């Protein structure tokens, strides 16, 4: 019976160090630092532990270009224990993503693209009405109910082209019938952001909400548009989805100053923006939110508990005796580094979040 001890870890809520005991993949004890014994002692002096990081917006279909990557390179390899693929696949190819997920070390979940063709062959997947097949979507959801957490619709000009708001209307209908929430990508219009936000409901997600292109959440006077505040009051969930073109320091700082904050911090990571930036990793995106004034605890909350609560899997957002181990080890390193948003604007970080490892059950993956 293998026992692993994480020695002298601490949480973001307390500087008090403790030993975390994991036996056969289960958290069995939280003890005074230096007191626990086991078969394997991992010295975590200087490190934090949190429940496993969750990235709510990735693209994990490795064979897809450009929007694809290896699940474990953007997952446990970067300290992320759970990733949610944000609509890479529609009904035509969801089976392949599911089968790939079963061999990944990272926990993989998915939003189903309401376009049956998904993002594999082209990126205007909602530009033709015949690619939206509600019956096929319903059958796919029924078959993969434990894997699919919601639906995804990319509602921006380059995706819908002349279809306008019609794909969103179709997505909302499929969502209602399936009793699953909808994640909506926003970007350049038309459709206008006002029309999109007015359509969304409680538990729906708007991702890329901090993008700096035209058609964003700020009006001509640098104030938040009223439709955003109304949607938040209805229960809309705000997800970052940094991506190659969808995060602006200016918009994020302005939203924060106006009292609007992300519910979840996510990357929209895929091979290109992982290797060449500006995303690189979830830890880098988290660091950007510390730069603009969020505390470490506030940042960690948005990649752990808040994400887990939205997923309806609270066990993924806590550290509790009796649960399966689902943990991320990380440090905050004093280091000056220039961080870049999707518009090429920069800010200077004085400290950097760096993942050191992930634990899922019995397995430890070093970052």
TrEMBL record:
Its EC number is 3.5.2.3. It is an enzyme of class 3 (hydrolase). PANTHER family: DIHYDROOROTASE-RELATED, IMIDAZOLONEPROPIONASE AND RELATED AMIDOHYDROLASES. Pfam families: EF_0837-like_N (PF22647). InterPro entries: Deacetylase_Atu3266-like, EF_0837-like, Metal-dep_hydrolase_composite, Metal_Hydrolase. The keyword Hydrolase applies. It comes from the Bacteria. Keywords: Hydrolase. GO terms for molecular function: dihydroorotase activity. This is Amidohydrolase/deacetylase family metallohydrolase.
């Amino acid at each position: 019976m293998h026992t692993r001890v994480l020695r002298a870890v601490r949480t973001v809520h307390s500087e008090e160090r403790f030993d975390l005991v994991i036996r056969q993949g289960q958290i069995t004890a939280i003890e005074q630092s230096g007191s626990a014994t086991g078969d394997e002692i991992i010295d975590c002096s200087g490190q934090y532990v949190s429940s496993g990081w969750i990235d709510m917006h990735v693209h994990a279909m490795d064979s897809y270009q450009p929007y694809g990557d290896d699940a474990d390179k953007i997952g446990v390899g970067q300290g992320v224990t759970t990733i949610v693929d944000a609509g890479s696949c529609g009904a035509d190819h969801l089976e392949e993503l599911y089968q790939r997920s079963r061999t990944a070390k990272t926990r993989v979940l998915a939003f189903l693209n309401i376009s049956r063709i998904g993002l594999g062959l082209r990126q205007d997947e909602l530009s033709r009405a015949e690619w939206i097949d509600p019956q096929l979507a319903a059958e796919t959801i029924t078959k993969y109910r434990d894997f699919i957490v919601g639906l995804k619709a990319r509602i921006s000009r380059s995706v819908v082209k002349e279809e306008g708001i019609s794909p969103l209307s179709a997505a909302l209908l499929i969502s209602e019938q399936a009793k699953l929430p909808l994640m909506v990508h926003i970007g350049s219009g038309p459709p206008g952001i006002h029309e999109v936000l007015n359509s969304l409901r409680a538990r729906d997600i708007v991702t890329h909400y901090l993008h700096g292109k035209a058609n964003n959440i700020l009006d001509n006077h640098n104030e938040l548009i009223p439709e955003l505040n109304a949607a938040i009051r209805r229960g809309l969930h705000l997800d970052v989805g940094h991506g190659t073109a969808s995060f602006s320091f200016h918009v994020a700082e302005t939203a924060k100053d106006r009292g609007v904050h992300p519910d979840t911090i996510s990357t929209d990571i895929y091979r290109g923006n992982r290797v060449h930036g500006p995303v690189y990793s979830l830890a880098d995106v988290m660091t950007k939110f510390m730069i603009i004034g969020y505390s470490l605890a506030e940042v960690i909350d948005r990649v752990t508990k808040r994400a887990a609560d939205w997923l309806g899997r609270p066990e993924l957002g806590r550290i509790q005796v009796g649960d399966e181990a689902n943990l991320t080890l990380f440090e905050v390193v004093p280091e000056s580094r220039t961080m870049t948003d999707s518009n090429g604007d920069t800010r200077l970080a004085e400290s950097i979040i760096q993942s050191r490892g992930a634990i899922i059950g019995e397995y430890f993956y070093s970052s």
